[in-house]
Design a protein that fits this description.
about 45% helix; 15 helices; seven-stranded mixed sheet; alpha+beta; disordered C terminus; about 500 residues
């Protein structure tokens, strides 16, 4: 009934000249109609719930991410689970009162669920990280958490400094650092940082410390040195080589399984408990929990948070306008990419940037429909047609720049597809919103940039803000396409775009 209320549905059925002689007879028949329709709808809902329950019986008992989906296959809600089967089943228990236990928002969502899919993960941590990434990418209607730009924290070590510092950050430096994470719980990370500092005595301040600065010996260290949590390189209390040796030990500790340390701590805790030193045992228990929390993390490569590593785009946008030789300010950039392996489950992606920042609500996925086998040019052409048919009709804004992941051939394919669309619309006598968009492509490896109408690549230095911005858009389109592609190959779940 597409959201139509039951009373409205019945009123429509019983509207008009139905041969009723009196108002009472009409009301009587209307009440009867309500009962019939309500019973039919309840029967249908019950059959759907039973079908979902039967499907859930085949769900794995391990961790993963689940997807509540409507009749049109749109993802309504994404969640994580320690046990997929038990977690998803809890939404559809006959005796459960979802409105009381999880709120009216979730109860409304469950009433719209047509089927449920899942994606298995190796651990709860993987499930948590994947859930966060999927929610940010897909932005389901009924998810309220993890929709903002907040990211998971990292542990950052500034390894190129004379005296490396160790920090918790959500915005790592671009270079010169070693990253661990992302971590799932910043509170536990802060706690374990304190415990590690007691052992390795690294600095957490932001001072610039030069090993050759003789004046350091006159500097008074902070309180952390007094309580034996920092070696105080700021006050020349430790030599550079000795301090860096301690940092290398810290890195080995972070990269290891820490099994030896934990075994020793477990033995100490047990001994303290047997000797009735319960406060000491409790302290050791808490330290063990904190150290174990170090394993609740992903890796920077596998659990990418591209928004974390973005540079300030202001300068890049000004210079990009000059390079494109356009009178228009560059505000909207859309990036495209294709993901395929042997022509299987080929997908296209489109990401939108506004003022140099990702605009997640503008992201789109396209399951390639018209191309068989491996033909990147034809796939790019299909995505261009499907994306910009609305802009051509004046229903959406044209971007200022369309950026294709690829070389000159990919750019020509996109140009030809757009020009063919315009020609077809004009020939059919349709009103056409002519594009003001510029087109460009950026190829991997050599990072050559091809501009619309040019045959020779534009080569920008590695530190160019324009190049960094275009790489960011390209890499985000690539990540988004690959992410969707892997999901399709693993489980044929989505039918978007």
């Amino acid at each position: 009934m597409n959201g139509m209320k039951r009373d409205e549905f019945v009123d429509i059925i019983f509207t008009g000249d139905c041969g009723f002689r009196t108002a009472d007879s009409f009301r009587s028949q209307r009440r009867f109609g309500h009962r019939l329709v309500s019973q039919a709808l309840n029967d249908n809902e019950n059959r759907n719930i039973e079908r979902i329950r039967e499907r859930i019986k085949d769900f794995p008992t391990g961790p993963g991410v689940y997807f509540m989906k409507g009749v049109d296959d749109v993802v309504l809600y994404i969640g994580k689970a320690k046990s997929l089967r038990s977690r998803v089943a809890s939404y559809f228990q006959p005796s459960s009162n979802l409105e009381a236990s999880r709120g009216p928002h979730i109860a409304e969502m469950v009433n719209k669920v047509d089927h449920v899919d899942y994606l298995e993960t190796e651990s709860e941590v993987d499930a948590m990280l994947k859930e966060a990434r999927l929610i940010k990418d897909i932005r389901p209607l009924y998810n309220t958490d993890l929709m903002d730009d907040k990211t998971f924290p990292y542990l950052e070590i500034t390894v190129r400094e004379d005296f490396p510092g160790v920090y918790i950050t959500r915005k790592p430096q671009e270079k010169g650092t070693l990253l661990f994470g992302p971590f799932t719980n910043v509170r536990d990370l802060r706690g374990v940082l304190v415990e590690m500092q007691k052992v390795f005595r690294f600095r957490t301040c932001s001072l610039e410390i030069d090993a050759d600065d003789a004046k350091r010996r006159f500097f008074r260290p902070c309180l952390l040195h007094s309580i034996h949590q920092c070696a105080a390189p700021c006050g020349a209390r430790i030599e550079r080589d000795e301090y860096r040796r301690s940092i290398r030990e810290l890195i080995r500790f972070l990269r290891s399984k820490r099994s030896i340390v934990l075994r020793q701590m477990y033995e100490q805790m047990t001994a303290a408990s047997k000797s009735l030193e319960f406060e000491k045992a409790a302290m050791l228990r808490d330290r063990i929990r904190l150290i174990e929390s170090l394993d609740k993390r992903g890796t920077p490569d596998e659990d990418v948070q591209p928004e974390v590593f973005a540079a300030d785009p202001t300068e890049a946008l000004v210079k990009l306008r000059d390079i494109l030789q356009t009178p228009n300010q560059i505000r909207i950039i859309e990036g495209m990419d294709i993901a395929t392996i042997g022509g299987s489950e080929s997908v296209g992606s489109l990401v939108k940037f506004i003022d140099g920042r990702p605009f997640k609500n503008g992201y789109r996925r396209f399951r390639i429909k018209t191309v068989q086998g491996v033909d990147d040019y034809a796939m790019i052409a299909e995505v261009v047609r499907r994306r910009y048919r609305y802009a051509l009709r004046g229903e959406e804004l044209w971007p200022d720049l369309i950026l294709i992941d690829g070389g000159l051939g990919h750019l020509h394919a996109a140009e030809a597809s757009l020009q063919a669309m315009i020609a077809e619309a004009v020939a059919a006598g349709e009103a056409v919103e002519m594009p003001h968009s510029k087109m460009a492509s950026i190829a991997k490896r050599e990072e050559d940039i091809y501009l619309q109408g040019g045959a020779e690549p534009l080569k920008l230095p590695a530190n160019s803000p324009v190049r960094k911005l275009l790489q960011y858009v390209r890499d985000e389109a690539h990540r988004f396409a690959q992410h969707y592609h892997h999901i399709l190959r693993g489980k044929k779940m989505f039918n978007e775009g």
